[in-house]
Design goal:
The protein is α+β, with helices and mostly antiparallel strands.
Length: 369
């Protein structure tokens, strides 16, 4: 029958970086077919994957191999013969679980085949030893029988008294012994040949066992290396988590600062609106202040008239009574107007001072931001 596939799936194939022994290097650009093969002739199992015309996995399963699930959809195993570590990424957890289950089945079957092979070698070795012991025992028995024939021959010779009669009596038995001896020699040679053959195969098995022990030691070393790498990854993960916590705290502080800036922006807009109102009020006061020169001009005109009236006082003494009333009225109006003007000027000065303070507060607020 030869080699036949027994299970097939699809996965992304990776190999460990031979330089760093840490990073995964993609062996396929996309998901490819990964199959378990059974060789009935050699009674062995292999995992084979081909990407186009390129063989990317050719791994013989041994009882010392272990398939490890490193995540929900990723698994790996070390192949000491290929001197690499293979990794498979599946599209679902079910595919990974099925592949791992099949790996364990194949591994157990390979172990059973190895045990049967060792038992067969031991059985054949014991059989060869037993056959050799049996042959030695037969040769040991032949020597006494040959010794027992000698007195019989001598007795026949002594009875017959001639060498011809002695030869005629010994030849048939000697021929039987010779043929038996030849048969035993052939069996011994065959046994020695088989013993050498099994010894060679036993030596081969010992060498394979030594290689498997070396592979197991290398696998153990790889496991320790992976443990160290896993510990380093955990430490790096903890460091990254701490950095993430710090960054989240900084983000919270930044959000608080943004909220403060937003509040300050609203406050600035309110102050700008108040400033526009104050400027409008100041503009109104300026417009009112434009009336002051007219009032002053009226005051001066009244004063001029008053002086003219006083100059004519001599001439108009007769009319002083009536004019005195007019003068008093004019002076009273002038006093009232001066008082109102002074009050207006005080109010204007207060507004100007208030506007100046308001601008200083707004400038200070802009510098603080």
């Amino acid at each position: 029958m030869g080699e036949q596939p027994i299970y097939t799936t699809r996965a992304h194939v990776f190999q460990i970086d031979p330089t760093t022994k840490k990073n995964w290097v993609p062996a396929s650009k996309q998901a490819v077919t990964v199959s378990y093969f059974y060789d009935s002739t050699r009674n062995s199992y292999r995992i084979i994957s081909v990407d186009g015309t390129k063989v990317i996995i050719n791994s013989t399963i041994t009882p010392n191999m272990t398939f490890t699930k490193t995540s929900q959809k990723f698994g790996q195993w070390a192949d000491s013969r290929a001197n690499t570590v293979f990794g498979l990424g599946f599209s679902s957890e079910q595919q990974l679980a099925k592949f791992a289950e099949k790996f364990q089945e194949v591994k157990d079957a390979a172990k059973l085949a190895r045990d049967k092979s060792q038992e067969k070698v031991e059985t054949l070795s014991n059989h060869s030893q037993a056959h050799q012991d049996h042959q030695d025992h037969q040769e040991h028995q032949e020597q006494p029988e040959s010794g027992r024939e000698t007195p019989s021959t001598n007795q026949a010779s002594s009875i017959n008294g001639t060498d011809d009669e002695k030869i005629s009596h010994v030849s048939p038995e000697a021929a039987v012994l010779k043929s038996e001896n030849d048969r035993l020699k052939s069996a011994v040679e065959l046994s020695n040949t088989n013993a050498k053959k099994w010894e060679t195969e036993l030596q081969t098995l010992r060498e394979n066992n030594a290689r498997l022990v070396d592979a197991l030691q290398e696998s153990s070393a790889n496991v320790e290396s992976w443990k160290k790498q896993l510990s380093a990854c955990k430490e790096e993960s903890d460091t990254l988590r701490e950095k993430i916590v710090e960054l989240e705290a900084q983000c919270k502080e930044a959000d608080q600062e943004k909220q403060k800036n937003a509040q300050l922006t609203v406050r600035v807009q309110e102050l700008e609106a108040e400033l526009r109102d104050k400027e409008q009020e100041l503009e109104n006061l300026r417009k009112q202040a434009e009336i002051i020169p007219q009032l002053m001009a009226e005051c001066e005109s009244i004063t001029t008239k008053l002086q003219a009236a006083e100059a004519k006082n001599g001439e108009l003494e007769g009319r002083i009574g009536s004019l005195q009333v007019d003068i008093d009225d004019s002076r009273q109006k002038q006093g009232n107007m001066k008082g109102e003007l002074k009050k207006f000027m005080d109010i204007l000065d207060g507004k100007i001072d208030e506007l100046h303070e308001f601008r200083q507060g707004l400038s200070k607020l802009g510098v603080d931001n």
